[in-house]
């Protein structure tokens, strides 16, 4: 599951790139489609009766609007939620909450599912989840629904104006997440796991370079998520954090590593980079999303004047739940 924990960010960046092209060309609000795992899931798994990869219970969602669990595997917003806000649109709803006749299919959809991975068998032990192939198949359903609503010509504007401009992020330093640190003798990062992440990132960049050369008009970029997250982990105080080696819920060694209702939640959630043993906190997600967006701007993938962009919201100092 440590491998899956980083895939969501990669998928998120890909969809953000799709939205960029549409925004730049039409100067309208972007349409965002999110694919991924528990880092991006906003409630799809809540609709899967047999899935055991769920977080529809406290303390999840305590810092989200309303303070209730929504299916997000964090205390507040996902990186996808924050990125959507930077583009001036609401977070896309979970695919399984929609009917194909809903107008929402025209405004962006989140397909991410806790337990998913690049391989369809990645999360098989979670019993029921939306595999990556499932998510792509459901996107095809959304496209067909769009054609039914606005016609084929208008629906395929996505490819011509944006879908060829895709922006990926690489894997984070997975050996440094709490669930992996506890496997080391001294609580430090597992360097062999980090080495695998770096190897994957190098291979992914090479693949994207070859695809760019092969596909006319394609622009696929790989962002350095590894350095962004490692910076948070190695220099937490620089970004307003005090703790980056353990989880707010103190569940690093617990079975599943999730923040159950019986967990001893930290006093100030905004001080922790990690919410549970696998997932970053709302406060950390603000920083990560800010860096990813800044990378998009500096790379010329998005023009700030063409989107409704605000600075990253300040980190809220949250009291201990009672």
Automatic annotation (TrEMBL):
Chain positions covered by the region annotation Disordered: 303-322
Gene Ontology terms for molecular function: hydrolase activity, acting on ester bonds
InterPro entries in the record: GDSL (IPR001087), GDSL_Est/Lipase (IPR051058), SGNH_hydro_sf (IPR036514), SGNH_plant_lipase-like (IPR035669)
CDD domains the UniProt entry points to: SGNH_plant_lipase_like
GO biological process, one term: lipid catabolic process
Signal peptide location: 1-21
Record keywords, A-Z: Hydrolase, Lipid degradation, Lipid metabolism, Signal
Keyword Signal belongs to the record: yes
Protein family per UniProt: Belongs to the 'GDSL' lipolytic enzyme family.
UniProt source species: Aegilops tauschii subsp. strangulata (Goatgrass)
Name of the protein in its database record: GDSL esterase/lipase
